[in-house]
Amino acid sequence: MTSTTPKAISLRVGILLIPPVQLLDASAIDLFGMLTHEYLEACGLPKPLIELAIPVEIHYIAASGSGTHASMTSSATLPVTDPLSSPAVQPGQLDALLIPGPDPNLVPDEDVLAFLRAHKKADKTDFLIICTGSFPAGYAGLLDEKRITGPRGILGKLKDKFPAAKFVDRRWERDGKIWSSGGITNGLDLTAAYLHYKVQKELADLVCAMAEVGDRDQDYDSGKVSNTLWWMWLMLRSLVKGKSKGGSKERKMEE
């Protein structure tokens, strides 16, 4: 007899902000907000669709603590609702914890890593690791012995830093409670897949249809070789264009 995962009738979700955070990475949290009665009702949907909604509690977590703002890309900031020590976000209190990508060169402070390790040890929370969020997750040991994906352009760097992980080239991947995504908007693909795993199918279908996400395959349309060739071609074009602009400037100066 096959067993199925019971669908959640409510969700407690945290998003760990390690500034500076990629704004598009963090946008995946909005799909959780769209599951709520308040959101669906505000959209003016028919009653049968509104009744699919579930309560969702979202916590914006950062070491700086509540009342502060976490810096994002594009000069944006996001209010922090909970410090790392908040009782509401301790191990066992969250159904899911999103880790959007920070600066890939940043090594998080030990209190942030300890927070992640504690959640891993409790084994009660699903981790949704988006783009360069794989770096803090890796430093905390979350990736060890797990099948993981990451941004295609830096998979080599991730493999070097975290050799205990088993890296694959996909838009998103799941290994137990560890869900990981490729670059930036692949976090939306990941979250769409997670919603279909976690909540009632009709509700997940509704939210993903409204957001127009979740229609891309788990595997990329192009292979590693063609993707690498595309980046090389883009760099070559940029180099040629740069030289062309330089030549134009020299001619104008001579005139």
Automatic annotation (TrEMBL):
Pfam families reported in the protein's UniProt record: DJ-1_PfpI
Lineage top rank: taxon: Eukaryota
DJ-1/PfpI domain boundaries: 66-195
PANTHER family: ARAC-FAMILY TRANSCRIPTIONAL REGULATOR, DJ-1_PFPI DOMAIN-CONTAINING PROTEIN
Name of the protein this chain belongs to: DJ-1/PfpI domain-containing protein
Species name: Cladophialophora psammophila CBS 110553
